[in-house]
What we know:
By secondary structure, this protein is mainly alpha-helical. The chain folds into 2 domains: 63 residues, Helicase, Ruva Protein, domain 3 (Orthogonal Bundle), CATH 1.10.8.50; 55 residues, CATH 4.10.910.10. Helix content is 47%, strand content 3%. It has 7 helices and 2 strands; from the N terminus they run ββααααααα. Strands 1-2 form a two-stranded antiparallel ribbon. Strand 1 and strand 2 form a beta hairpin. It is elongated, with a radius of gyration of 24 Å. The mean pLDDT is 88.
Amino acid sequence: MARVAGVDLPKQKRVDVALTYLYGVGRNNVKEILGKLNGAITPETKVKDLTESQVGLLNNLLTKEYKVEGELKRVLQAHIHRYIEIGSWRGVRHRRNLPVRGQRTKTNARTRRGRRKTVGGGKSAAAAPKK
């Protein structure tokens, strides 16, 4: 099993598909990565057929030139904290746990806002007789 950037790649998949299992690596990045290796690894190669030297080449290239996995997640989290600290609109939305990119919140937005919270006493409290 090939372990690249701390992630075990699936053995039966092609290299170009398996590399997309890394956080921060998409299809375009895979083309770029395999192009930089100058044909040392072809996209059609299965992960189980990679040699140790090829896995080492992939690891070296990814650690030197790309931010993937934990490092990328830390960078993105730092950006969010910076927005919160400077008090930008995006930071305020993050702080309040609301949608950041202009989506409506009157309806929907349940993923960000959580389950519905019932407000008020309901019908039974309103219908109680007054003395």
